[in-house]
Amino acid sequence: MGFGKNNVLHANHFRKDWQRHVRTWFDQPGRKLRRRNARKAKTAVLGVRPLTLLRPAVRGQTVRYNTKLREGRGFTLGELKEAGVSRKTALGLGIVVDHRRRNLSVEGKAINVERLKAYKERLVVFPRKTGKPKKSDSSPEDLTTPTTRQTLPLPPPFVPEQPRKISQEERAFNAYKTLRNYRAEARFEGARKIRAAKKEEEEAAKKK
Predict the structure, then answer these.
(1) Which domain holds residue 178?
(2) What tens digit of pLDDT does each residue of 22-76 get?
(3) What residue ranges are annotated as transmembrane (predicted)?
(4) Sign (positive or negative) of CA dihedral 32, 149, 83, 128
């Protein structure tokens, strides 16, 4: 390493007491056990409540991940409306709501509406007071049915198509050529309109 001008050379000191500045992590196994016991205690306190909240099935961002389904932040207000669940009721039933999310496809919205309906069918709402059940609470017959605390799994990311024979029309169809023609039509649409209008004006001027 070179130095500019006639300056004093550096005298680097590497014999400092670095052991005092090292952070240790000897309590990691104990913390792991403590977190596990806390999760068990919380699960026991929750009783028959689901282990996790219900979240929507959404597509990952970008072309790299949009073929996969994952759990999103919360259901949209449109999905809740179609499933017949109000926003206030959803918060009490373990359904997460995200008012900022928007539905960009009919298929994605339908998946989450079906997810909400399936959750409602499996849901058993116990009354807060035994003698005074509310209208939204489950019937006495439903309360005696066996319950599960596992949440709904995510649907498959795509439905595989059954194998079939290719028709003659599909063999004759040229996808590459069709796409190129559509792109060319979109690209030259403005110029062709101007040319057609100019031609009409010239023909009108000749008739006069």
Answers:
(1) 168-207
(2) 888 999 999 999 999 998 898 888 777 788 899 999 999 999 999 999 999 999 9
(3) none
(4) negative
